[in-house]
Design a protein that fits this description.
Number of strands: 15
Shape: elongated
Oligomer: single chain
Largest sheet: 6 strands, antiparallel, barrel
Strand order of the largest sheet: 2-4-7-8-9-14
Order of helices and strands: HEEEEEEEEEEEEEEE
Length: about 190
């Protein structure tokens, strides 16, 4: 019993010595708030590979590179050369009357130093972010006689028929300038300084 009490006292005594020897160090926390890029922001990028409805399928991974520095409140939040990654979310094959269409979703950006930020966006088009999907030209034109009353002549008019041509595949060329539109705010907590 004496040994147990001695051991307990020794532990308490050494614990109090160690607590006195450790300096009370307060770490300075970095005063840095996240910068929020608002929803609807356009980011100019360049395409790094050819993307086609003929050769690619849904889920095909795509990559784009920022062409300009993007500043917000005097801070370069997206430097030139930042990479954007995403995938083809939806593909519609070409059919009679309509060209092929695709929608590309962007999910993350990668800074030059390897830092990743999750984002939500799409490759922008004025057609609800869908590339392609246009109507095809008519397969043939019909001739219709048009009688002109004043001149008393008959002229032939051409009007489109009711059958359209087969649709074509849609392609986004390598090196083409595109725009990413953010669909949700992106919080940036990392910026590069030169």
């Amino acid at each position: 019993m004496k040994k147990l009490l001695l051991l307990l006292a020794l532990l308490i005594f050494t614990g109090s010595i160690q607590a006195e020897e450790l300096p009370n160090v307060q770490l300075d926390i970095r005063d840095y708030n996240a910068i929020e890029i608002p929803s609807g922001t356009f980011i100019p990028v360049i395409n790094t590979q050819e993307i086609s409805t003929q050769n690619c399928s849904e889920g095909y991974k795509v990559r784009f590179i920022a062409t300009n520095d993007m500043f917000l409140h005097d801070t370069n939040i997206i430097p030139r050369g930042t990479e954007f990654f995403g995938y083809i979310e939806k593909i519609n094959a070409p059919v009679v009357g309509t060209n092929a269409a695709m929608k590309i979703k962007i999910t993350k950006m990668l800074y030059k130093d390897g830092y990743e930020v999750s984002i939500r966006g799409y490759l922008y088009t004025s057609n609800d972010n869908i590339f392609g999907g246009e109507l095809t030209p008519p397969a043939k034109l019909l001739r219709i006689a048009q009688r002109q009353v004043r001149v008393k002549k008959t002229t032939l008019q051409m009007r489109p028929g009711n059958v359209r041509q087969m649709g074509k595949h849609t392609t986004i060329e390598s090196g083409s300038n595109e725009i990413i539109v953010l669909t949700a705010p992106a919080k940036i907590t990392h910026t590069l300084t030169n």
